[in-house]
Amino acid sequence: MTTQRSGRRYFLWLALLMSSMALVLAASLFYDFKQRSSIRQTMERRYDSMTALVFQFEREFLRFRRALETAVERPGRDKTEELALRYDILISRLNLLCESPNISVLDDRPEFKLVIMQMKSVVIPAEALWSGNQPSVKEMEALLHTLNAMGPAIQSLSLTANSEVARLLENQSKAMLGQSDTVIGLSSALLVLLLIASVALLLRQRSQEREHAALQALSEDLREKSALADASNKAKSDFLASMSHEIRTPMNGIIGFTDLVLDTRLETVQRNYIENVKRSAQSLLIIINEILDFSKIESGAMVLESIPLDWPALVHHALQGVAFEASQKGLVLSSKLANQMPLDCLGDPGRIGQVLNNLCHNAVKFTDRGFVEVNVQARLLDAHTCEVRVAVTDSGIGIAADKHALVFNPFSQADASTTRQFGGTGLGLTICKRLVEGMGGRLWLESTPGRGSTFYFSLPVQRGTHRQAASAAPASKLTNGVRPEPQSAAPQTSLQVLLVEDNPINQLLAEAILTNLGHKVETARDGREALEVFSTRTWDLVLMDIHMPVMSGLDATRYIRQLEGSGRHTPIVATTAGAMEADRAACLAAGMDDYIAKPYKPQVLQDLLNRMAQQRAGENALAGKA
Amino acid sequence: MRKRHFFLTVVMTVALGPVFADTLASPKGKVVLTISGKIDESNSPQGVQFDMAMIEKLPQRSFTTLTPWEKVPIQFSGPLLRDVLAAVKAHGSVIKAMALNDYQSSIPVEDAMKFDMVMATKMNGKPIPIKTKGPLFIVYPFDSKPELRSAVYYERSPWQLKSLTLE
C-alpha cells in the first residue's frame, strides 16, 4: 500500500519534472526564434546602407557647391549646364534620402529635419536661377553663401547617421546578447532538470532493486519454510505408514488365529466371545487401513487403474458390507441403477468401491431407523466419456449446514460429541473426498438435520473396450478394496508350498491355514534359509515375505530366478504389509508373479492356492498329452 | 494595346534588323549614352553615342517589379540590354557601367543574355528625370526570380546611367 502510494507520487513528480523540461525547452525555442527574426530584420533593413546614402548626398552637395563656385568664378553656358546637372543629381540624392525605407530611423532626428528643411526652403527654389536664362553672378554668389552656411549641418547629418547606425548595431548586439543569455540560462535550467530527473531515476532504480532483493529473500525464506513443512509432513505420513505397518503385523496374528479358533469346536458362549474378538479386530484393522490410506494419499503415492467397472457388483458389495449392521438396526437397504447404465465404463473399481463402502458405512452408522438407498445415474458426455453420479441417501440424524465443510476435514467429525457417540477416526470422508477428487470427480452432500443426508459423488468415466486386457493383470491390492467374491472350491491337488516368513506368529498362522486347506508346507525364517530349502526339491508355490533379516525376499527371489535360469518357473507370491504401490512394482521387478497383502486372510490365500492348483493341473494335463 | 505593341516590335525587328547597321547615324539630340570598348559599331571618336530618340527606336520591353529603392512596384520600360549590346555589335564578357555621379558597376554580359534586363527610359510610362534616377536605369526583373533579390544584383543596377564600356 505504502509502496503503491509512493510509486504514484514518484510518477507525479516525474511527470511534473518532464512538463517543466518541456516548458523550458519551449521557452528556449521561442528565444531562438526571436533571435532568428531579429537577424533577418537586420538583413532586410541594411542599416549600413543609411551611411552610404547620407555620404552620397553630402558628396553631391559638395560637387554642386563646387560647380556653383566654378560658375561664379568663370561664368559661361557650359558651366551653367554643368551646374544644372549637378543640381539634378543632388536632388535625386535628396529624394533618395527622403524616400528610402532604409533611412526611416533618421526621420525624427533634428539634424535630418534641419537639412531637409534647408534643402526645401533654399536649394530647391534656386533652380529658377538657371532654368530659363543665364543666372546673374550676384544671385549665384548669394546661393553659394547660403550653401557655405549649410556646410556644418550637412556634416553633422553624416555624423548623426554614423552614430545612429552604430547605436542601432550596438542595440541589436545587446538584444542578441540578452537573448543568448536567456537561451544559455534556459539550457542550464534544462540541464539541471535533466540531472534531477536522472538522479531520481537512479534512486528509483536503487530502491526497486532493494525491494526486489527483499522480495527474493522473502520468497527464498518461504520456499525453505515450505520445504521444511513438506519434509515434516512427509515424515508424519511416513511415521503413520510405518506405524500402521507395525500394527498390522500383530493384527495378522489376531485375526488369523481367531479364524482358526472359530474353525474348532466351540461352545456357544465361547463362539460369541471369539466372534466379538474378530469383529473388534476387524474394526481396528479398518481404522488402521484408513490411516494408511490417508497417509498414502497425502504422500501422493496414489496410482489409479483403468479397467472395466461392474457397477451392479460394486453397489451390491457395498450394501452387503453393511447388511449385518443394517439388519440389526432394522434399516431398509435398497439400490437403484439407471437402465441406460453404460457397460463399458473404465475406472478404478478398488477406489470407487472404497468410496461407496465408506459412504454406505457412514449412512448406516448415523441412521437408527428408516432406510439407506444407493442411486447410480449416468449421463453420456460424448462418445468416449460419461458422467456417473452416485447418491447415498439415509434417513439419519443429518448434518447442520454450517458443519457441511467440516465433515471433510481430516480427523474431525461434525462435532466432538459425535466422535464419542459413534467412534471412528474421522478420516473416512476425507479419504473419500481426496479419492474422488483424485479421479477427477466431486463429492458433496445435502442434508437436513433430523431428516437425513444425501452424499453425492460424480465421476467423469472413460468408456471403451480397448483396455479390456488390463483386467487380466493382477489388480492392485487395496487394503480396503473390494474384490469379486472368489469361487471357493476345495483343492483338487495338494501343493508343495515353501513359506518364507520371519515373524513366528505369522508363520504359525499361515502354516495353519495352508495345512487346513490340505497343502504341504515347509518354512524358512529368512531369504538365505529359503534358498537352502528351495534347492532341496521342486515347489508348486513360494510365499515370500519381503522384509526379513539376513536376506530380503526381493534378493532371495532374484537368486531363485537366477538359479532356475531358463528351466522350470516356480510361482513366487509376495506377502507383505507394506501395501504401497512402490512395493508392488519392486516385487514384480525382482521376478515375483503376484502379490498379496498381509494380514493373511484365509479366503485370499485359498483363492490364490486354488489358482495355483488349477494351473498345475493344467500343466500336468499338457505334460500327459506330450 | 500591349499585344499590338508587341506585334509592332516583332515586325520592326524582322523588317529593320538587317539594315540596322546603316541606321546608326550620329545622334541628333543631346547625347545620353556612350558605348565604348569591345564593339564593332561606331559613330563617333568615343565609340557609339546615343540620343534618346535612337534608344527609343530599339525594340521596347516593359515589366513591373519591386526594387529596394521604392516602396511600391514600378513599371520599367525601355530596350532589353541584350538588344542594346547587339545594336553596337558588342563582344567581351563584362560591361563597365558608369553613372552621372561617377558610380561604377560591373555587369557580366552573361546576365544580359540570361535575364530580360531592361535599360529603362521610362518609369510608370514617364521619362525619368535626372532628379530621380534618369535618364537611363538598368534594371533586373527582380520579381521574376527569387535569386535576383540579392545585394549582388541590386549593385549591378545603376541609375543615372552615363556610359557603358565593354571589356
Describe what is shown at a glance:
The complex is a heterodimer of chains A (626) and B (167). Chain A is an alpha/beta fold and 626 residues long.
Notes on the protein architecture:
The complex is a heterodimer of chains A (626) and B (167). Helix content of chain A is 62%, strand content 12%. Chain A is of the alpha/beta class. In chain A, helix 2 packs antiparallel against helix 6 and helix 9 packs antiparallel against helix 11. Chain A is rod-shaped and about 185 Å long. Chain A starts with a helix and ends with a helix. Helix content of chain B is 26%, strand content 30%. Chain B is built from six helices and eleven strands. In chain B, the strands form three sheets. In chain B, strands 2-1-11-5-6 form a five-stranded mixed sheet. Chain B has a four-stranded antiparallel sheet with strand order 3-4-8-9. A two-stranded antiparallel sheet of chain B has the order 7-10. The longest helix of chain B is centred in the first third of the chain and has 15 residues. About 9% of the residues of chain B have low confidence. Chains A and B meet through helix 2 and helix 3 of A and loops of B.
Q: What can be said about the biggest beta sheet of chain A?
A: 7 strands, mixed
Low-confidence stretches of chain B: 8-22
Distance between the termini of chain B: 39 Å
CA-based shape of chain A: rod-shaped
The averaged pLDDT of chain A comes out at 81
Q: How many β-strand stretches of chain A? A: 12
Helical residue percent of chain B?
Answer: 25-40%
- Report the span from N to C terminus of chain A: 88 Å
Structural class of chain B: alpha+beta
Main beta-sheet annotation of chain B: 5 strands, mixed
Q: Unreliable segments of chain A (pLDDT under 50, ≥5 consecutive)? A: 466-491
Strand content of chain B: 25-35%
**Strand element count of chain B:** 11
- Specify which chain pair forms the largest interface: A-B, 17 and 14 residues
Q: Which overall shape of chain B is indicated by the principal axes computed on the Cα atoms?
A: globular
Overall pLDDT confidence of chain B: 83
